[in-house]
C-alpha cells in the first residue's frame, strides 16, 4: 500500500528553521526516515513538500483519484486554510485515511496555533512528538489497514 506524506510551507527548512522548536533533523533526513519507517510497516511512503496552497489542494485531489491514504503536516495552513480543509474533507469522505501530524504541540504554543481547521475532517491527529509524530502516524495507519 502506498501512502502519501505531504508537508506544507516552510517544512523544507527543517534542520535550520528554529531548531529549538522544530529540532535539528533536516527535511532530507525526515524524508529518509519516513521511507524507512514506511517500508518497515509494509507501506510505500511517497513524501512531498510544497509552500504552495494550491499545490497542496491538488495533491489531495490526486490522493482521492489514486485512492491513496494521506499523512499531512499542513504547517501554518493548519490554522486558516479553508481551501485545504475542504480538500482534506474530500479525502476522508472518500473513505481514505487522512492523519494530521505536527512536529510540535500547537496547543502549547501561540494562541493562533490553537485552532486547526483541518482536525475536524481528519481521521485523527498526532502532534508534539517531533519527527516521531510521522512514525506514530505510519503505525496508526498500518494498524488501521490491518
Ligand atoms: C507545525 C505547527 C504549525 O503551527 C507551524 O506553522 C508549522 C509546523 C508543526 O509541525 O509543528 O509550520 O505544523
From TrEMBL:
Keyword tags:
Amino-acid biosynthesis, Aromatic amino acid biosynthesis, Lyase
* InterPro entries on file: DHquinase_II, DHquinase_II_CS, DHquinase_II_sf
Pathway stated in the Swiss-Prot or TrEMBL entry: Metabolic intermediate biosynthesis; chorismate biosynthesis; chorismate from D-erythrose 4-phosphate and phosphoenolpyruvate: step 3/7
Q: Which PROSITE patterns match?
A: DEHYDROQUINASE_II
Might you give the EC number(s) for this enzyme?
4.2.1.10
Q: Does the keyword Lyase apply?
A: yes
Q: What does this protein do?
A: Catalyzes a trans-dehydration via an enolate intermediate.
**The protein, known as:** 3-dehydroquinate dehydratase
Q: Which organism is it from?
A: Demequina activiva
Q: What gene codes for this chain?
A: aroQ
